[in-house]
Structure formats: C-alpha cells, structure tokens
C-alpha cells in the first residue's frame, strides 16, 4: 500500500468531530448505572457495528479466503499482540467511562491530548525514531501544560487532581497499543476492520470476565433491557467504532504521533458541547492548558508533517506483502 500523508490526515480529521463528542456521550448513561457495565455494553455495540463491513469484506474477497488469512495473521507473535492490545483496549475503555464521570468531560478531553507525547516517547523507545529539537520543544511544552492541568493551575503537588492523572493512563495505553497494532497492519494481510473485530472480541471478553468477577452480573443483565441505558450504549459504541476504524486507516498513511496531532481541536469541541448540552462552566486553568497543548500539538503537526513529507523518495515504493492495497 502506497502511503499518502494527505489521505491519512483526511482520515484523522474525520476522527476530530467524533473525538470531541465522545467524552459527552460517555456521560450520557443513566445516573447510578455502573461504569463497568456501560463499558461492556458499549463494547458489544462496537462489535455489532463492525460486523456489516466485516461481512462485506468476506463476501468481496471470498476467493482469497479472508477468514483463513485472518486466522493466519493472528498466529504466533501477531496473535499475542492481538491478545495483549485487546486487553489494553478493554481496560482503556473502562477507564474512559470512569474518567468522564470523575474527572469531567472537559478535563478528560484535554488529558487525552497527551497521546502524541506518549506516542513520541514510545516511538523513540521501541521504534528508534529520532525527534528533532523543535519536536522535543513542543513535546516539553505539552508536558508542562499537562502538569498545569493536573494541578488545577497551581503547579503544586498538593493540588494534583488524581482523577485527571488517572485519565492520562488512557492515552498511554492507546499509544502503546496502536503502535503495536501498526506493525501488525503493515506486515499482515488483515484489514483494519478485521483487526478491529478481533480486538473487540478480546477486549469485550476481558471486560465481561471482569464484570462477572468484580461487578454485578444481575446488573449487567438488567442493563440489557433498560431502553435508556441501551440507547446511550448504542450511540457511544457506534461512535467509538467509527473513530477506531478511521484511526486505523489513518495510521496506514502517517505516523501515529502526526495522526493524533491532527485532532488538536477535539477538546474545544468538547468544551462547546459541555457548555451547551451539560451547562458546565469552564475553568481558567482548563482554557490555558488547552491553549498551551494546542500550541504544542500544532508545532508537532508542522515539524512532524515536514519530516513525513521528506522521509520517502518521490518514486513509488515496491509492493511487498503487507504493503499491497487491501480489499
């Protein structure tokens, strides 16, 4: 598959609007309902949303035995990656639901922008990708803004908002899992949707086991027949799935850190929705933190995008397994 930075950025932009709404949707479940139960059901509806495209891919590539290719792709090291990342995504989904309630949609949305910081660090540690001085400066600026956010504008340890710190664990898990899956996407014949289906099965299974062990099994069943609960879970699940599949397509064309940087205005969308829909008030430290993070992320877009455009020769790369266009 030939990489197209413009196509990758286009997919990332489609993620922007969805990402802005997700923290609001995560708080739309009925009051008093368990976060773990909601995480199980929204993952179930993500899986349901993925099945039409999964079935279409099977029918379109019947002669190529797509199921056999997927099973083959999930063997050995790729299979282990699927299991590990599936569990990581399951945990991050539960953390997302909890953080939306405890830290609040706006603080959650801003904390999620730490993704490129973690992605940059992971790419450097595990992929050996060196960053320029400008990229390191903008990364440091974002780290300072995140410290400012988690201390609620004081930079004092005593004022740390631990639920905001908790929310930072979500982009950390995402960055590690996405970079692990990027390798699978580039070296196996599995499509992004097939990888998504496999990860939803694993993450859903992990969440279900967790809910049965430490949660409320009866509450899980009761939520299944609660119309208001299911309505919230369906909307969140479908939106979450669309963002995931668009994100995986973006990663085929651009680096994870650059793709994440394109979604810079997502917290601004969340802020607007929080004020208009939830009637929330914004804090000065949240606005300042968002401004600093936006400056850092746009700096990464400029420096990272310039590096991306000059990283490959103008001629097309030779086709190789895992580099062909997928059906």
UniProtKB/TrEMBL annotation:
Keyword Membrane tagged: yes
Transmembrane domains' residue ranges: 38-59, 80-97, 103-122, 134-150, 162-181, 201-223, 229-249, 256-278, 284-302
Keyword field contains Glycosyltransferase: no
InterPro entries named in the record: EamA_dom, EmrE-like
Domain EamA positions: 162-301
Pfam families: EamA (PF00892)
Gene3D superfamilies, per the entry: 1.10.3730.20
UniProt-annotated stretches for the region Disordered: 306-327
Keyword field: Membrane, Transmembrane, Transmembrane helix
GO cellular component assignments: membrane
Protein name according to UniProt: EamA family transporter
Organism: Thalassobaculum fulvum
């Amino acid at each position: 598959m030939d990489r197209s930075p413009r196509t990758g950025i286009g997919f990332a932009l489609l993620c922007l609007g969805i990402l802005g709404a997700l923290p609001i949707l995560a708080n739309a479940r009925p009051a008093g309902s368990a976060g773990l139960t909601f995480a199980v059901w929204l993952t179930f509806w993500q899986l349901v949303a993925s099945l039409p495209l999964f079935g279409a891919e099977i029918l379109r590539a019947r002669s190529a035995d797509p199921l056999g290719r997927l099973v083959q792709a999930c063997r050995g090291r790729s299979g282990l990656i699927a299991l590990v990342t599936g569990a990581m995504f399951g945990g991050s989904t539960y953390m997302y639901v909890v953080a939306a309630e405890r830290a609040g949609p706006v603080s959650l949305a801003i904390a999620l922008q730490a993704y490129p910081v973690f992605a940059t660090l992971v790419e450097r540690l595990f992929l050996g990708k060196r960053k320029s001085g400008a990229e390191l400066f903008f990364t440091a600026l974002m780290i300072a803004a995140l410290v400012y956010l988690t201390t609620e504008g004081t930079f004092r340890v005593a004022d740390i908002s631990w639920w905001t710190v908790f929310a930072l664990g979500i982009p950390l898990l995402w960055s590690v899992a996405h970079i692990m899956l990027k390798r699978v996407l580039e070296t196996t014949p599995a499509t992004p949707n097939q990888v998504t289906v496999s990860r939803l099965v694993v993450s859903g299974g992990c969440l279900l086991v967790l809910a049965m062990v430490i949660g409320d099994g009866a509450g899980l069943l009761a939520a299944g027949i609660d119309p208001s609960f299911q309505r919230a879970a369906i909307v969140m699940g479908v939106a979450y799935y669309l963002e995931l599949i668009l994100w995986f397509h973006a990663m085929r064309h651009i680096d994870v850190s650059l793709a994440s940087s394109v979604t810079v205005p997502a917290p601004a969308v969340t802020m607007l929705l929080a004020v208009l829909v939830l009637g929330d008030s914004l804090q000065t430290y949240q606005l300042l933190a968002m401004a600093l993070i936006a400056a850092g992320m746009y700096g990464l877009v400029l420096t990272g995008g310039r590096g991306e455009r000059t990283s490959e020769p103008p001629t097309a790369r030779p086709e190789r397994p895992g580099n062909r266009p997928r059906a």
